[in-house]
Amino acid sequence: MIAEKNRKFVILGELIALSAVIWLINIQFPESYYGFWKVPLNPYIAASLFVAVYYGRLYGFLTFGISLLFLMIPYYGGTFLTRGADLFSVNYRYIAITLAGVYLFGMIHKNFTAVIENQRVFMRRIAKDKIRLKKEVKGLEVVNREFEERVLLQYDSITALYNQIKALNTQNLTKSLNIFLSTVQEFTWAEKISIWEYQKETNSLVMIANIGWTAEDAIYTIEDVNSSINGWVFRNNKFFSVRMLMESNTFSKMETKRNILTFPINTSTTRWGVLNIESMPFPKYNLYTERILSILVDLAAPAIEHAVEYEVMIKHEDIDSISGLPSPIQFMNLVEKEITHSLERGTGFSIVIMELPGFDELVATYGNEKIYGLVLKLLARINTLSGNKLDFFHYTNSNQFAFFYPGADYDGAAFLCFESLGMLSSHEWVIDGNDISLEAIFGYSSMGSTKISRDELLDSAEQLIEMQKV
């Protein structure tokens, strides 16, 4: 505003200076002419019209008026008034024409100014729209990259998900939960994740597995079912999202800083616990992630249920104090339960029996601890061949060991045995610096869609072993 006012004064000064310069030149001519070369009011008229076109009507009138005032100065004698009267009486027609011309040329200026101003407004609007579009484009680029990432990695994600879900099918609850947490982290980029199990005796939820927890989080390992968001999810069997805090006062009296997404985990017969996402990148907090988590929980629930049942069974049976392997009765009970589960869910499994000829002689020579240590190394290598899917047990004889192989059919079990024989013969087995010759005989059988009893499964595997001894 101040700059505009200063600009007006500058223009006024320029106009006065222009008129003064013209007049100073004009007085060098005879006084009878109010203009150059005997042309009335020349070049005052031209200057006024030019100014009207360039600056507008107001400045055109001011220029002409200032010029007339300069012409009324009694340079050649007389008075200001007499000089003015003579000026107007002689040149009134030219003055009138000049005023009309200034008005018309001022209209031209106004029209062009309006057009230019409209163009400026239009260009400013275009510039603003361009800036807004740039921001929208940047936002769309971020979204587009997210979608491109989803599309380009779709195949790899499905493959990874398939492999992870297969890896969940182990009877080791700790291993299953850790695999599940890793899968969740891979698909959500979450920094903090925890799994909570319901304890009926204390009516509370206990944290049994996590990723990203620190020492400061240790005080939060137990939560009351009735006063926490995890408990609300468990009790109502509904998932929780942090956006629900804005939609309801249900959680106003609960601690809300440790829950972003929380899902119930259910087995086929009961509610088991919850999965809680405590920290994750903001771009990953969306409906897509919620759906993925819901799918992951549903896919992992059967494997968790099997692992829980296995853990319960193990707690009530003996474990060999030297090898750390479950007893044969545990293997029998597991096979019995898995037959029922396979028929209900349409999934299969295989069992493998490994017999080590010369085992008793090796034990007599080197002792139980060293030989069982060697056997455990062998079992670990075999488990690696299966993709870490096996669970190992003692079998009926001391030199026999049973494998439970979830999800494997008859061909899969045969291939595992073939690979194990190759690994056994190619590896050097050493105790106390002495090379040990390990031999093994494998028998196997599978449970498919057709019902088969536990004894038939075990007999089929044992018969294969007996056939190889002949």
Structural class: alpha+beta
Rg value: 48 Å
Count of all domains: 3
What general outline do the C-alpha atoms trace? rod-shaped
CATH architecture of the largest domain: 2-Layer Sandwich
- Walk across the major sheet and give the strand order: 3-2-1-6-5-4
The tally of beta strands, per DSSP, is 12
What portion of residues belong to β-strands? 5-15%
Order of helices and strands: HHHHHHEEEHEEEHHEHHEEHEEEH
The CATH topology of the largest domain comes to Alpha-Beta Plaits
Question: Average pLDDT, to the nearest integer?
Answer: 81
Q: Going by CATH, what is the homologous superfamily of the largest domain?
A: Reverse transcriptase/Diguanylate cyclase domain
Low-confidence stretches: none
Distance between the termini: 110 Å
Count of DSSP helices?
13
Biggest β-sheet: count, sense, barrel? 6 strands, antiparallel
